[in-house]
């Protein structure tokens, strides 16, 4: 289980240090997703972001499906677990810009303010997670940690329930959430009823055996 960890202070690197780290990074890359240092000191590269969304997302149907070009209908659905997306970004891109780019890539119509980007680190057989601030630079974190995702990975999640900006949701979205909650509640009730029905049958069977006339 993830352990929450406080954000670490960012250490700024000189141009020469950035150059050396990029060379070291590229020499360790195994998936061809290397970083490139430009003459102006800005570097570009790739990050992979795992989508761990518990609530449904709203997608523009006409864009995501490539049909119904004249339709602006939206569809809400759950994103499959373990979905990973690769983004090509620069060292100047902030966490907020990365979130917006991810949502745009998936044609998600939801407000970016509903989501947060986390970094996940593995240290001494323990997994730590830390929510990144909007102004942090993910590619810098990737460069410092190196290309190994077991050392550092990025995760997109919704804000915690207590942090959710419910006013950012539209009325149709909120109504859809209520319908989904009602459906999930009903499913859980049916599962509980079946479980206790089995218990009841076994108890009645046991009682019948105990009181059966010899």
TrEMBL record:
<keyword id="KW-0863">Zinc-finger</keyword>
<keyword id="KW-0206">Cytoskeleton</keyword>
<dbReference type="InterPro" id="IPR029071">
    <property type="entry name" value="Ubiquitin-like_domsf"/>
</dbReference>
<protein>
    <submittedName>
        <fullName>Ras association domain-containing protein 3</fullName>
    </submittedName>
</protein>
<dbReference type="GO" id="GO:0007165">
    <property type="term" value="P:signal transduction"/>
</dbReference>
<keyword id="KW-0597">Phosphoprotein</keyword>
<keyword id="KW-0963">Cytoplasm</keyword>
<dbReference type="InterPro" id="IPR011524">
    <property type="entry name" value="SARAH_dom"/>
</dbReference>
<dbReference type="GO" id="GO:0005737">
    <property type="term" value="C:cytoplasm"/>
</dbReference>
<feature type="domain" description="Ras-associating">
    <location>
        <begin position="71"/>
        <end position="161"/>
    </location>
</feature>
<keyword id="KW-0862">Zinc</keyword>
<dbReference type="InterPro" id="IPR033614">
    <property type="entry name" value="RASSF1-6"/>
</dbReference>
<feature type="domain" description="SARAH">
    <location>
        <begin position="163"/>
        <end position="210"/>
    </location>
</feature>
<keyword id="KW-0479">Metal-binding</keyword>
<dbReference type="GO" id="GO:0005874">
    <property type="term" value="C:microtubule"/>
</dbReference>
<dbReference type="GO" id="GO:0008270">
    <property type="term" value="F:zinc ion binding"/>
</dbReference>
<dbReference type="InterPro" id="IPR000159">
    <property type="entry name" value="RA_dom"/>
</dbReference>
<keyword id="KW-0493">Microtubule</keyword>
<dbReference type="Pfam" id="PF00788">
    <property type="entry name" value="RA"/>
</dbReference>
<dbReference type="Pfam" id="PF16517">
    <property type="entry name" value="Nore1-SARAH"/>
</dbReference>
